[in-house]
Amino acid sequence: MPSLPKRKVGIVACSGEELPAGSVTRLAALKVLEELRPSETVTICLPLFLAGGEGDRAFAKFYPTIAVDGCAKRCAARATELYSNTPAASILVDDILAQHNLPAPQGLRRLTPESQPVVDALAAAIAAEVDHLMAVRWSRTDGAILEAAPAAQEAVSTSACACGSGIPVTTVQIAGRAVQIMALEPILELAYNQGLRANGTAALPDEILQTVQVYNTVPAGEETQYAQALDIAWHAYCKQREGQSNG
Amino acid sequence: MSKQVIIVPCSGIGKTYGTVTREAAYVVAEDLRPETTTIVPLSLLVLGDEEARAAVQDAQVITMDGCSLACATLNVRQAGGVVAKDFTVLDVFRRNKALKPKGISELNEGGQALARALADEVAQTTDELIAGGVDHA
Fold this sequence. Notes:
The complex is a heterodimer of chains A (247) and B (137). Chain A has a 4-stranded parallel sheet, sandwiched between helices. Helix content of chain A is 45%, strand content 16%. Chain A folds into 2 domains: 9-150, Rossmann fold (3-Layer(aba) Sandwich), CATH 3.40.50; 169-246, no CATH class. The radius of gyration of chain A is 20 Å and the shape is elongated. By secondary structure, chain A is an alpha/beta fold. Chain B has 137 residues and is α/β, with parallel strands linked by helices. Chain B is built from 6 helices and 4 strands. Chain B has helices spanning 16-32, 42-47, 50-57, 71-78, 89-95, 109-130, and strands spanning 5-9, 37-39, 60-65, 83-88. The longest helix of chain B is centred in the C-terminal third of the chain and has 22 residues, at 109-130. Classes of the chains: A alpha/beta (247), B alpha/beta (137). The A-B interface holds A 13-18, 22, 26-27, 29-31, 34, 43, 45-53, 73, 75-76, 78-79, 82-83, 108-109 and B 9-14, 22-23, 25-26, 30, 39-44, 46-49, 69-72, 74-75, 78, 104-105.
């Protein structure tokens, strides 16, 4: 059975163009992504929540996100919650200003040099939140922190989607070829936790194929082959879970 | 309808072309056509902010997108706005292949020039929309 990839944290910046603080969120997010925590973070493009970015929406459903907003409207936090999942953390520029006693940033197209400390302080706050989220256990089912204890040592590794979103992909054999299924293991985990089980020769629960189709394109005419491959993965997953609970 | 033409860049955070749209929007709204254009942040439209939705519903809108997903155009339409003209950076790049953009946080010289080329086209379209005889009462 495939195992889970190293977790990543998604950063959603409002990037608002009409306020200097919007540019601050953008630059701070990029600083974290490019300099401070490049291995632990990915970008989540806010407009893609509406424009059909399945990878972006799926990421925020299964993994922790940090929303970074430039004003009290909190577009990034609220839109993430509206279209995907409640952000694990939400940071507001005004709060950073208050905490560090910094002046309000100035400049839209080009932030003034005096605004750079605000970018740096915000980036540091995001990075600290990334560290916190990487150190706790995260429930992909509930989209929330399970407990504050450090996560168990990563004993396994698996591939993440090539799109860079960090979503796990599982490779299955379909009609003699290797096919990658995005987010299969979290989907099976969700089904199992909802009480579904693989019972002998019973057919694959419809919910599993339907959910797989949300995040993957199943070519027309190949539904049966996909269902057969998913059924094999489903039985293996249930067997593994039952073994864990018995052991 | 408003006399202002609304400019909506995608400002995609993960790609250079997204930064080109953002820069071009500022060039238009601050330098080239400050009297006749206004930027509406895409994040507000994504959230469904009433003021932002009203703005795009009450004016002619020019969108600028950095990739084929066309987030700006799609989000304006979903907000009930009519896109008078949609620009994609790739199209402008095809017309200006010497301008090779690099950088996300900060555009290189080629990126700045490409943003200016995009902004020039947007400014021209703005003039055409303003002169188009639309009832701006």
